[in-house]
Amino acid sequence: MKVIEQNMEDPYFGTKELCEKTNYSYQQVYRKIKALTGETINEFIRRVRLKRARQYLLQSDLRVSEIMYKVGFSSHSYFTKCFREYYGVSPTEYVEEKEK
């Protein structure tokens, strides 16, 4: 998880890069993450990014677009889609609920 956090801003950081940086094979990383979380490697990386985005939304005054880039998303629509799937609301709606 630390490797993911250190490379979070890189939108191209994914399965291949995680395996290279941890010196484990794809199969080793896949099995370990699947056993621990039930997710694929990409799903796990996406979840880590979305959790960090949520923290930024709660604890900072950064705009959604700034947060999106800080956690490694390069498409606003894809970030919003993923955030909504995971949290049930868009990032903007999440901020609005937080402010109530």
UniProtKB/TrEMBL annotation:
InterPro entries linked: Homeodomain-like_sf (IPR009057), HTH_AraC (IPR018060), Tscrpt_reg_AraC-type_HTH (IPR020449)
Domain HTH araC/xylS-type intervals: 1-97
Keyword field: DNA-binding, Transcription, Transcription regulation
GO molecular function: DNA-binding transcription factor activity; sequence-specific DNA binding
Entries under SMART domains matching the protein: HTH_ARAC (SM00342)
Protein name: Transcriptional activator NphR
Organism listed in the record: bioreactor metagenome
